[in-house]
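Lab channel / #folding
Pinned by the channel admin:
"Please post every new chain as: sequence first, then the structure tokens as a reply. Keep commentary short and put observations after the output so the thread stays searchable."

First post following the new format, from NK:
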Amino acid sequence: MALPNINPTTTKAWQNLKEHFEDVKDVHMKDLFAQDKERADKMTIKWDDFYVDFSKNRITEVTLKYLLELADDVKLKDAIKSQFSGDIINKTEGRAVLHTALRAPKNANFKVNGVDVMPDIHKVKQSIEAFTNEVVNGHKKGHTGKAFTDVVNIGIGGSDLGPAMVVDSLQYYKNHLNTHFVSNVDGDHVNEVIKKLNPETTLFVIVSKTFTTQETLSNANTLKKWFLKSANEKAIASHFVAVSTNIEKVKGFGIDENNIFPMWDWVGGRFSLWSAVGLTISLAVGYNNFDNLLKGAHKMDEHFKNEDFSSNIPVVLALISVWYNNFFKAESEAVIPYSQYLNQFATYLQQGIMESNGKGVDRNGKSIDYQTGTIIWGEPGTNSQHAFFQLIHQGTKLIPADFIGFTKPLHGNQDHQNKLMSNFLAQTEALLNGKTEAEVIAEGANSEIVSFKVFPGNKPTNTIFVNKLSPESLGKLIAMYEHKIFVQGIIWNIFSYDQFGVELGKQLASKILQEFNSSSNTEHDSSTNNLLNYYKGMM
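Reply from TO:
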């Protein structure tokens, strides 16, 4: 079954939202709270160890009613069923989208083209578990008989961002292995990592679906060349493993066929950390923690698939985001985790959200005349309060923000935790209420600077409280945003799972690379020609 193909702007709900927007666009949230003492309770979803308060948004119960009707008008329920059924919803690439199957239990029912994919998935999981345990326990050794101390993940995009973010986020659960991530083709990057390595005790994990990605193979070959300065070709089999579908190319690199972990074309790169792409995660935190990450994501999958839309966390967050993007014309959203462990979380979401929904053509192949996609950015609090919060509080842009906090600290320092959480709660309150002219004057401010100290408030936030940062809760959190991406793509009538926009630059880069060693250039615009000649002159 194909995805529904409905221009959202032609639906009755969209027209209702347009008219409703004119009625509420200038309403202050302070007044909404004053009018309804039960607003916070009505606009909170409690699920498992999540507590999601979306009451500090510029919405009313009528707004929610129309947004939920929009979800029905675009046949979101049918779309969710299509995705979980293994239908070819990535139509432009002729693929199913089944990263949800990667975290499902053995007895789950996931089929692609009528074939049950669960046996293969669990076979790979068993391989990941066995390999992880051998390395972590020191049973699997390098070519000189020494146990591994370091793991280097070589990949880019989804083969790097997901594993790097999760390993960073789960530092508390890390074992003795040191993990490093090499992604950028910048030679300085890989050489800085090399400085920290001992070739006798380093394991390399090359992650490339096709084993043709320029950045990944350049880095892999550089590391291989460095490794071979102190080892022979046969030693590669003991130190290099690959996650790929291209068995022949991997074997040609010198990697033992037993050290190849397969993946499938129905797993998109930016949703692949749940697959063998997560091998480095498993090595870094142990297989049990990796498995708990998957179990957490599966719990969110079940919530998304089965929960009524009105109390469905990813659906509600997606609908509110559409409200700001398409009616308030807010162009960006901030993600502010109040945990230093999640310092790469917003960077990870940038790829997931902006690569998926950064599309200007609808599912009919026609140009779109409404906004899609959102620009995602953010840093952990409290650091971000001392960086860009000034713009959110008093700037001219409307920037909805997700605040993510954990009620329990991992290291148990309650004094620090209370200070962190006081800031977490205070910021959303300040963004809601602002500060009036009368309040500034009452504080005794000099009349000449009163206007500079006024805060308009009425700045929207979602507050996402989670009990504790654990592998399982992180899995839920990541899956929550994945499903939010899906819902928005369905509403905007776009294909979220291709990324043709990244291909053109790659093609041109290959062409320019050949010209660096040529006396003449092929046809470029005058600016690119000048820049190319300047660089060639400096080489």
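NK: The radius of gyration is 25 Å.
TO: also worth noting, Residues 287 and 435 are 50 Å apart (CA to CA).
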